[in-house]
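Dear support,

I submitted the protein below through the web form. The confirmation email said the job was done, but the results page showed an empty box. After a refresh the structure appeared. I'm attaching both so you can tell me whether what I see now is the final result or a partial one.
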Amino acid sequence: MKTPFRLGAYLLGLAVVFGGAFSAGGAIGATRPAPADIGHPAHVNPSQAEQKTEHLPGGLQVSQDGYTLNPELTTVTPGEQAEFRFTVNGPDGRAVTGYETEHDKKLHLIVVSRDATAFQHVHPELSAEGVWSVPLTLPEAGAYRVFADFVPHGGEGLTLGAELYAPGDYTPRPLPAPSRTATVDGYTIRLDGALTPGTVSRLTAEISKNGEPVTDLQPYLEAYGHLVALRVGDLAYLHVHPDGVPGDGVTPAGPGITFYAEVPSRGDYRLFLDFRHKGAVHTAAFTVRAEQPAAAPTATADHGSGHSASNQARS
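What the results page shows now:
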């Protein structure tokens, strides 16, 4: 039986869990720097530092490449709507006001519970002063991660992450078991394809309703679907790209939506698929395990028969 406990105790547990995760980083694909010469202090120039962090998946850092995510609040009352306001400060220390439009929006805000079960994808409004704001309701007590996915004007795409808390009694939910089928709002979604660490993987979501394939999906964020992939444990945010463009005369409006994703390590991932049909956006969730493919068996030469064949050839 599960017993609810206070969020403070949960956060202490998180510190222990993530501390252990860092110590076991090699097991999940993290790269550890070589220890510095004990007789000399380590010297790392800025270009070396950037090389060490540029390979990290998105969302693990609150600051990257001179840009910093600055929420005005980090604690909200669960179940009550709050105005979530934040800025992205640029290399000059000022709030960024210029953004490129990416997937129909200047910024995508993703909110996920630390147990990777609750998910929201919202789009804040930007003021002339560079302050983003959006009404936000956290469904229940717990720890959450917010991700700001954006492209600053003239720059490269970034995903920055920060913590958000809803105090109160909290019972972490178990991770849903890996499954390639999800149901939501009367729709059934089957996910085909495998996640292979270190390579680009092709995934296709097949959507049906009442046993019939859905062939009239509507565009959502300039595609027939939007997929967010998060690594369970640290919630590393992975960019996933849809295949095709609605209205290009080639991409069908269902039932299949194809995506390309690259995961950095083995383990479990949570995938959240948004799609639009009949004017409403629906979100399906999957737990998918990324594994290395089985190595092909190596043929072993039969030296005895080889010698026999050679002898026969010579004879």
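Response: this is the final, complete result; the empty box was a page-load delay. The first helix runs from residue 7 to 23.
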